[in-house]
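Dear support,

I submitted the protein below through the web form. The confirmation email said the job was done, but the results page showed an empty box. After a refresh the structure appeared. I'm attaching both so you can tell me whether what I see now is the final result or a partial one.
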Amino acid sequence: MNRLLVLATIIQKQSFTKAAEALGYTQSSVSQMVAALEKEFGMKILRRSRNGISLTPEGERLYPSIIQTLRQYEALHEQAAAINGLHTGTVRIGVITSVSCYWLPEIFKAFQQDYPQIDFVLQLGDYGMITNWLAQGEIDFGLMTADYGHGFQKIPLHETEMKAILPVDHPLAEAAHFPIEAFADEPFLMIEGGGYSEPQVAFDQAGIQPSVQYRIQDDYTIMAMVEAGLGLSILSELVATRSDFKIVTKSIQPKVKRPVAIVYQNKEQLPVASQRFIDFLIAHQDQLR
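What the results page shows now:
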């Protein structure tokens, strides 16, 4: 099992040296364990080049099963701990920026009052990255829109509003709301969703097509660029209304919504710690504001 853990850590860290440091091994030991694993499986799993470390085609086929085996082994330990009355474990979550910044800190704080020994690993990404992590078994569940991710189970948590983001000197900065048709006449900064975009869906429904000047993954970069007068955007109210940028946020007419949900493959197969945290989220969803 240690060999599988070493291999997974090398892929995550993209370095034999960093993997050795993270796991408390020497670099020589790490290299020997990878060599032994490749000999056991009868194939080359890792490829080293000037561009870094990558999986061979054979390794790519094996990797999902390796991750699944590690998760099952971890779940076995957690189940044993639960039987013994202990509350240990690790919860791995894929999450979008707005949720990680403005919902999770207080939820973590409340949850760890009851389960202080449970650890969390957060992976920030867009919708496409989160669904890929779910499919590969690299995370237990995601917190993202309920409107994307075919084939996954979803539990709706809360519906947030997407707001228009304007420079402070915009002609509609003092208006009661921002008509969606007005985006057609302005340079637009599109938040990258990795396969799904609430703004683009809203534009398609309204029958308009703005001039997309930039496609950016980071909410804060977008707000900085709007502040600089480079265009308009649409972002979650969780981010837009809690920033120090000199921008204006407006409700869009008609409103654009993001239904945030817990997204996973099979709750019954998740580690005990993750099942408990999901139950805790559902029980406290009225606190997500």
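Response: this is the final, complete result; the empty box was a page-load delay. Residues 57-83 form the longest helix (27 residues).
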